[in-house]
Amino acid sequence: MTFQTIACCTDFSKNADVAVRTAGTLAKKFDAVLEVIHVVPPPVNPVVTDFDNPVFTSVTFDDSVDSNLVLQVEEKLQKHYTSMVPGDVKVRYVVLDGHVSTEILNHLDESGCDLVVVGSYGLSGMGLVIFGSIAKRIAHKANCSVMIARPSEKNS
User: Fold this and answer.
1) How many beta carbons lie within 10 A of that of residue 128, not counting itself?
2) Which pTM was predicted?
């Protein structure tokens, strides 16, 4: 089995760092291109719908993501991950916006990746959450091989 393009999903968590290092090592071994992917989720705007009881709100999703934010994330990807990937590996940094697992799956289909590496769990805007639901969706629906990278006991 060989790989030409290896994708790696990140949310900048420590587990995502493990996934990027793992994907970088594999990309070097197989002389593959590495795609480091981050998805910017759409902004969530709580809206008060009952002014007598503001505890009850509705949530709206704004599909537009500021292009400056995308550029900032691209810069952060490069700055954060360049040192984690072997220097002779060709890296493409990819910033997508939308629903995380949907955008990742769409990108994997469109780009023809042979393997995707994800962390076992990560971070969200609400703090530490189980990244497993994203990894699980990707593992079940991706049209390529999926590797879930877990940190070693000594590094966790």
Assistant:
1) 10
2) 0.79
